[in-house]
Structure formats: structure tokens, C-alpha cells
Amino acid sequence: MEDNKSTGWFYPTLFQGLGIVFLFILLSMITGMFISLGYLLGKPALKDFVEMLGYLLAAGGTLLVVMRVKRKVYQEQQTFNHQPVAPLNLFIVIGLTLLGLLAIDPLTNLLPMPEEVKKLFEQMFSKTLPAFFTAVVFAPLLEELIFRGIILEGFLKNYSPVKAIIWTNVLFGLAHLNPWQFIGAFLMGILISWVYFKSRNLLLPILMHLVNNLVSYLFLYLSDVPFSEASLKKLFSTPGLYITLVLGGIGLLVLFFVVFAKYFPFRRKRIG
Questions:
Q1: How many Å apart are CA 138 and CA 144, to the nearest integer?
Q2: Could you tell me the pTM of the whole model?
Q3: Could you report the per-residue pLDDT of 158-198, keeping only the tens digit for each?
Q4: What CA–CA distance (Å, rounded) separates 147 from 129?
Q5: What is the domain partition of the chain in residue ranges?
Q6: Alpha carbon of 186 to those of 57, 89, 179, 272: distances in Å?
């Protein structure tokens, strides 16, 4: 492998980032063959357990490969750039995530979903413990290490921040393997990527991803609305209240970026 440092480029470039996503898709297809066995057995808990293992093999395998490549290229550097921040930032990003969920919710169901695809999603997103761990624990951890810790970090060294963030989340949307999740993944990914760009702290994007998936999972668990029709709008009896909250979320996000973003993140005070 040609050393990126000798060419003036850092790993990964956009082309290499696309290769990382293709690797994830390829591993997902391979593990998908094993997941199909769980469906044939007809037991939901076992099916979701096999699906969890399949996801761990696909995402975990992708992470191990890109970590190995990066270590080979930059032997004297740490694999991940993780800067310490003050605990206050944890509460700030939780608030940003909730506001982001409100702001983008009206856009998440704009693309009609065929009935066949709806049935497939209902099979994939269930209310078992393995499904919970896949969505709320493993996905935030593994995907953030890949997309923010490796891909975005490399892109920020190769391109302008705007280009780096946009291209990272085009890839992040593509990695979800379907157009119905692309909009939500892309827009929330923009917010998560901005937080990483400003902080260079990996815990913050992992926490944001976790909160996003936890809210979505709790919504599915506490309601009878199928995944294909999941929207915060379903929680409100009147459209007016929903619209007010969405506009309020957008307004508070704008206020944060206009007034408070320049102070983010708060760093830990150094002793001595």
C-alpha cells in the first residue's frame, strides 16, 4: 500500500472512504446469508440474536480492517484522535440530539415505502433484547468509530470542513443500505459530525448516536406504530402542537449555532 503521507494525502481519502462503505456492505451481505437462517427458524428472539451477531461481524469486521490499515500507514500515531472535554458537553449534545430529532422528524417519512419493504422492516426492527443491543449499544459505538473516528477525521485533513462533513454523511447514509433511512441518517449525521469537528472527542458523537437510536427504539417499544410509519407526530393528538414543537426545535437549533456554538466545546481545565 502506498503511504498516504508521501503523497500529501491522509487516510482515508474520499475514494478510500467509499471503499470502507463497500467493505461494510459486502460483509453485511455475507453475514446476511447467516441471518436468513434465523428467519427460517421462525423464532423471533433467536432471529434477532443471529441478526445481532451478523451486525457485529459486519461492522466490527469493517472497523478492524480500517484500524489495521490506518496503523500500517501511521505507525507512530494513535489510531483515533480523542480530545478530552468537560462533562458539561455531554448534556449539551443530548439537548442538541433531541432538538435535531424534532427538527428533522417531518422529513423522515417523505419517501413512500412499498408494502413489501414495510414488511421487511417490521421483521428487522423488533422489540427483543438482542435488537435493543444492536440498535442502541453496538451501532452507535461501532459506526461512530468508523464514520467519525476514522472517515471524518481523515476527510477533515484532506478537504474543507464543509466538504468533509457532507461527504462523510453521504457515505453514512449509503451505509444504511436503503433510501428510506438515508435522509434521517444524513441530516442527524451532519449534526453529529459538526460536534466531532469542533470537539475531536469520540464520546460525544457516540452519545448522540445512542440517544437518537434510543429515542427511536423507545418510540417503537411504547407504541403500536410500525417502523415504516414511525414519527414523533404520532405522539400528539393535534397537528398544531407537533408543528409548534418542530418549529421550536428548529428555532432553538438556530439560536444555538448563532449565539452559543462559538463557545462549544468546553474543555477540561488543565491542572498545573
A1: 10
A2: 0.89
A3: 999 999 999 999 999 999 877 778 888 999 999 999 999 99
A4: 25
A5: 4-263
A6: 24, 23, 11, 42
